[in-house]
Design goal:
Radius of gyration: 17 Å
Helix content: 40-55%
Structural class: alpha/beta
Number of helices: 10
CATH topology of the largest domain: Rossmann fold
Largest sheet: 5 strands, parallel
Distance between the termini: 40 Å
Number of strands: 5
Protein name: Response regulator transcription factor
Length: 224
C-alpha cells in the first residue's frame, strides 16, 4: 500500500487552515500532519514532522512565507520537503521571490479543490506546479536582465539541445509539448530535463524556470 502524502498547512487564517485540512484529510492517499499560523511555526513543524508538502501562505505574521520557504529549502535535512506557495493574487509580488527561495510552485487560494489536490500530488512527486501564463507575467515584472550579454557561467556546461529544452521549460511547455516542438521522444525529453536538474543543481522544474530567466537565456516575451 502506498504511503499517504503528508501535508503541513501554513496559513494565518484559522478558517482557511481548517478548510484545507478537511480537504486533505478527506482525500484518499493524503493526510494533514500539522498546522501553522505563521512562518516561524511552519519552519519548526517542518523540521519536527518532515512532511512531504508544505502548503505555504506567503503573507503571514512573525515570519512571512518567503523567509519560511527559504529556511526550509536551504535545510539539507529537509531535502525531501516540498513547498507549494499559496497566494490570493496572481500578481502577488511575493510569488517570484518565493520561487527564488525554493518553492516548487504556486497556486491561487481560490483554486478549486481538485486543482489543489492535484497540485499537492504533483509537488509530492517531485514535479512543479506553475501556471505558465502567470509565471511569465511574474518573471516579466520581477526579474532583471543580466548586466552583460555573455552567457551565465552556470550555463557553460549545457549542450545546445539542453539550452533549447531549458528555454522551452521557461516558456511553460510540458515535456510532451517540448517533444513535439523539437521532434524528439518523450523519454529523450525526460533525459534532458534530468540532466538539466543535475547540471544546474536545481531542485525541480520551477527552479529551472528561475535559472533560465535570471541567466538571460530566456527573456519575457520570448515565443514559447
Amino acid at each position: 500500500m502506498t504511503e499517504a502524502v503528508r501535508v503541513l498547512i501554513a496559513d494565518d487564517q484559522a478558517l482557511l487552515r481548517g478548510s484545507f485540512r478537511v480537504l486533505v484529510d478527506s482525500t484518499p492517499g493524503m493526510a494533514a500532519v500539522g498546522e501553522a499560523g505563521d512562518g516561524a511555526t511552519a519552519v519548526r513543524l517542518a523540521r519536527e514532522l518532515r512532511p512531504d508538502v508544505v502548503l505555504m501562505d506567503l503573507r503571514m505574521p512573525v515570519m512571512d512565507g518567503i523567509a519560511a520557504t527559504r529556511q526550509i529549502c536551504a535545510d539539507g535535512a529537509l531535502s525531501g520537503v516540498r513547498v507549494l506557495a499559496l497566494t490570493m493574487f496572481d500578481m502577488d509580488e511575493y510569488v517570484y521571490p518565493a520561487l527564488q527561495a525554493g518553492a516548487s510552485g504556486f497556486l491561487l487560494k481560490d483554486a478549486s479543490p481538485t486543482e489543489l489536490v492535484q497540485g499537492i500530488r504533483v509537488i509530492a512527486a517531485g514535479e512543479s506546479v506553475l501556471a505558465p501564463t502567470v509565471t511569465r507575467r511574474l518573471i516579466a515584472n520581477f526579474s532583471r536582465p543580466p548586466a552583460a550579454p555573455t552567457p551565465a557561467p552556470r550555463l557553460v556546461g549545457l549542450t545546445p539541445r539542453e539550452q533549447e529544452v531549458l528555454v522551452l521549460i521557461a516558456n511553460g511547455l510540458s515535456n510532451a509539448e517540448i517533444g513535439e516542438r523539437l521532434v524528439i521522444s518523450l523519454p529523450t525529453v525526460k533525459t534532458h530535463v534530468s540532466s538539466l536538474l543535475a547540471k544546474l543543481r536545481a531542485r525541480d522544474r520551477a527552479q529551472l524556470v528561475i535559472i533560465a530567466y535570471e541567466s538571460g537565456l530566456a527573456e519575457p516575451g520570448m515565443p514559447g
